[in-house]
Amino acid sequence: MDRTLADVADASDERLLEIAEVTGTGADSRRLREIGFCAGAPIRFVRRAPLGDPAMYELRGALLSLRRSEARRIRVHRVAE
Amino acid sequence: MTALVRLRPSVPPKRPGRVAILGAPNSGKTTLFNALTGHRAKAGNYPGVTVDRREGDLQRRFGADDVRLIDLPGVYSLQPQSEDETVAVQVLAGGFGEAPPDGVVVVVDSTTIERGLPLLAEAAGLGLPVCVALTMIDELKARHGEIDLKELEEELGVPVVGVVGNRGLGIDDLGTLVSSSWDWTPSPGLLHGAEAKTPEDRFGWASDVLGACRRQAPEPNRWTRRLDRFLLHPAIGSAVFLAFVAFFFQAIFTWATPAMDFLSGFMDGLADRVLATLPDTALTRLLADGVIRGVGAVIVFLPQIVLLFTVILFLEACGYMARAAFVVDRVMGWVGLEGRCFIALLSSYACAVPGIMATRTIPSPRDRLTTILVAPFATCSARLPVYILLIAAFIPADPVFGPFTWQGLTLTGLYFLGTGAALLSAAVFKRGLLRGATLPFYLELPPYRLPRPSDIALGVWDRAKLFLRRAGTIILAASVVLWFLLNLPRRPADPQLSVTENQRAVLEGSYAASAGRLLEPVFAPMDFDWRINVGLVASQAAREVMVATLAQIYAHEGEDGEGLGVLLAGSGEGGAPPLLSRPSALALLVYFAFAMQCMSTLAVIRRETGGWRWPAFTFAYMNGLAWLSAWLTFVLASAAGA
């Protein structure tokens, strides 16, 4: 069952996930893929900002922040650890 | 095999003439550039510090005396979206009327190699010779990570050098490499990566390369996790931030004042010495009052400037600025802007000129323009002397709680006022004039790093030099012009009157006084008299000139031994009347918080927007808002009996 990164942040789920797909086309979604949000990449939710948005994720050894509007474009599924 | 032919430079030169430094934002390019060239370009621990290309010669000690290095803005890929990225890509493609560089050093953060290699593949795809500088090797080791550089080199077929830029480790190897022969042969593996069409393919290739090397990925940065848990905590984090800010502004009064008093006494002594030793001519008085007292009144704020930049540079270098952007991103989202706009706004607290240049990282033209239009509201360091002078004269130093006094809190309030004005104006622009969708925003949060004190000291020294240079050029010029306007036309001294009375008479009849009186209808609602009006007009050149003007007027009117503050606020019962009432002083503070009074900022807005339309607009709306708010402050403060 796929969820988006935004759902994960809402549930504050810190388990390891894998990116299934970045939805959408065009420059915006390409840029998300270029910075590493590609299908197959392991990703982990770290924390939300004090005001609730954006959220911080750990991806390929770096900490990246995405707003909920972008996190919704990224579909993820859980990986058995 | 066709690919091999295409990717080799047609005529490999013996030695490169120009080498570009390419890498992701915050991968350490500028630190490397500085180490290789001996320059001291500003580097920070947050993305987007370099927004334009920067050139410098490789230091001769590496064995070549004609290698030019080009430091490029950080890019994630060679498909540019913002102006600074376009600059990087154009330099590589041979734009700006120049040939493409002879080689590219791709800078990869060794703690996140996987994220840096795709850019290497793209750069190799351009057909330019490439090599790899793996930065922050010390951090990789500290986090128990490891990579076999030899194996990586074999996998890629291009030289790989491990470096620690700010400690100079590996710099000799890299310098020697860059200045030696340029015959690099990418491996079939790298060529395969260079042919990848999608980001997924490039990242897949990067994992394959790393999989073939002996490598231990670094453990998560424990300190960063711990500090984030604390500093990004909704309650504790906000409390720490607010306490820090308030403490800092208090320190500007409590700690920097003794040093400032010393400088102030020195300047006064110097002016008196000049008047006493040199013959009493107009030239002597120009030197003593126009130059020494006028410019000196600004220079005495050096301790506060040093303190301000020590804190700003520390926060930038340690990685907290990016966290600040993370925390307030929600607010920026409400305003309708993205986090990069906040980073440009943050730079404007030092000076709006680099802040406005930093907007080149913003991909959306509307967001960029909005940020340019509101950046001058950020409380730049030129406002600080005016704020401190007025606050010290009109706000009591009574303690409020703990170490905090009304003075420190007023200064804190003025900073929040500027920030609020910037955000509110941006929200208005984004909902009206410059409406448009918000682009996706991602922000990389670097690990916390303990900055080296020498780096901070060098940065502060640079800013102090800039402040003194400003005092020696634009403020000096304005102060000298003012001296003439305050002392002309000449009138014969009336022997019936004392020296001070005669000086006052000259001042009252001066050209500056006429100009100031002409403006009285405009500023009468705030009860500013002509002397303040002269200062307001003069500070249009640069904000600090307000202080220089008041110092010159004080040289005419002040009694011996009284400070400039006494001239402003009056000396109490039966003494000299004040130049300003307290409601007027508050109105003046608010006016300075909002007004657009800086030629350099208007010039940079013109350059970045390509015309006079937007600088004229900024000038009009900011000064209009400043007038209205100052008037409102005056009315409210008078009603409250302040």
Largest sheet of chain B: 6 strands, mixed
The portion of residues assigned to helices of chain A is 10-25%
Largest interface: A-B, 33 and 43 residues
Note the total helix count of chain B. Answer: 30
Point out poorly predicted stretches of chain B: 1-14
Number of β-strand runs of chain B = 11
Main sheet summary of chain A: 6 strands, antiparallel
Taken from the alpha-carbon principal axes, the silhouette of chain B is elongated
The shape of chain A is: globular
Structure commentary:
The complex is a heterodimer of chains A (81) and B (642). Chain A is α+β, with helices and mostly antiparallel strands and 81 residues long. Chain A has three helices and six strands. In chain A, strand 4 and strand 5 form a beta hairpin. Chain B is α/β, with parallel strands linked by helices and 642 residues long. Chain B is built from 30 helices and eleven strands. The N and C termini of chain B lie far apart (83 Å). Classes of the chains: A alpha+beta (81), B alpha/beta (642).
